[in-house]
Amino acid sequence: MRKIFLLLVIIIVLLTLVVSCKPADAQAKIDELEAKIAELEKAQAEQKPEGEEESPATEALEEKPEKEFSPTIAGSLYISGQTAAVYVIGDCAYAAGQGLKIIDITDKNNPTIVSTADATGWALDFYVEGNYAYLPYTSWDNEGYPSGGGFKIIDITDKKKPTEVGIFESDGEIGDIGILENYIYASYEILEEQDEGYYNIVESGIKIIDATDKENPVSVGIYDTGESGRSPVCIEGDYAYIFVGQTLKILDITDRENPTDIGSYISSGGWVRDLCVVGDYAYLSSSNSLQIIDISDKENPIMAGGAFAPGDISYVFVEGDYAYITYVVTDANWQVKESGMQIIDVKDKNAPTVVTGVEIPGEAAGIFVEGDYAYVGAGPVGLYILKLYAD
Questions:
Q1: Residue 355: how many CA atoms within 13 Å on its side-chain side?
Q2: Nearest alpha-carbon partner for 389 in 355, 347, 352
């Protein structure tokens, strides 16, 4: 820019001289002026567009390598029951087993239980939003078979003294739940005994509950899914994503109490255990495969890509360019041979690649990633905390 400015000054000076010169001298000055103009045009042509040239600091930033994944077990905590879903908010982890456990994870190597909220039996899936935890439970008959259920609303403002403030009773078992504003979308199923000790699903779907009044949640609608059983539920924007058998259903819930079926996709891997929606993609854990579905067109979702795990995938968590999955390998008698976590690079949705993994004791299930750590519910052995990166 400085060079161009100087040349402009020279041109102005030369023009002034031309005006004051005699004809013979003027021609010489004009020739000189034309030469300077040619030089200026050459300089402009060679100059790089503004913003193309990067500072050394920017170049150094771009060349800085990503952290290298090298997951290792940092700490663990035994929790009675079957620990599945895990949530992490700040320095607290929430894990379910024999009730809801609130865990201090300030020291990743030595997590400690701060308090417990009763769940009336084992709680596998639950949901945390704001100052409340929504904790499904199952009721059992005298012979030890499920006879109903519901969920409890727990005020977790005081981490040392979680308090039950409300309860929703259902005629069926409640599975996964999703929340949008004050509406709860809870999957459920009702079982009926066919022969002694054998039960069939006779009704299932999504119950819609208005929990504006936490002390008195009320049912305001049902989305019927026939006899397909309980479903994972994921809420993203004004859409709910559920499964009916092997089919992903996309529901428009703009009208919170009256979902509308607008799109579907049939999973190629069979029954889906978990799903996670981020942006224009849904990530499905189906048998031993992670399927990535392009849902940018809600009416016509399509397969984008997929990756395989050593065993059946339990849960999936997506953060940034990576999907974190848990898996379990069993033998012919359904005994656990191996369980663990894998990290999958999903930058290219059409060709995701496994980066690395780590084995985890127990039965790896729910997973939550926060910062440099992953938190895994490991079934009968409790909670495991994994450090994701090398020092």
A1: 19
A2: 355
pLDDT surpasses 70 at 45: no
Report how far residue 321's alpha carbon sits from residue 345's, in angstroms, rounded to the nearest whole number.
6
Q: Which CATH architecture has domain 125-266?
A: 7 Propeller (2.130)
Render the burial of 214-227: b for 16+ CB within 10 Å, e for the rest. eeebeeebebebee
Alpha carbons 345 and 354: distance in angstroms, whole number: 6
Query: Tens digits of per-residue pLDDT, 187-244?
Result: 998 888 777 667 788 888 999 999 999 999 999 999 999 888 888 999 999 999 998 8
Check if the beta carbon of residue 343 is closer than 8 Å to that of residue 356. Answer: yes
Q: Judge contact between 293 and 260, C-beta under 8 A.
A: no
Neighbouring-strand partners of residue 178: 185
Show me where the domains of the chain are located. 1-14+23-44, 68-105+273-391, 125-266
Of 144, 146, 145, 166, the C-alpha closest to 155 is: 166
Same fold for the pair 68-105+273-391 and 125-266: no
pLDDT confidence of 64, banded at 50, 70, 90?
A: low
The length of the chain in residues reads 391
Which pLDDT does position 98 carry in this prediction? Answer: 75
Q: Any idea which fold 68-105+273-391 has? A: Neuraminidase (2.120.10)
Dist. CA 372–CA 330, nearest whole Å: 30
Per-residue pLDDT of 70-129, as tens digits, reads 999 999 999 988 898 999 999 999 998 778 999 999 999 999 999 998 877 667 788 999
End-to-end CA distance of the chain: 46
Give the CA distances from residue 129 to residues 37, 108, 169, 264, in Å, rounded to whole numbers and listed in that order: 68, 23, 20, 28
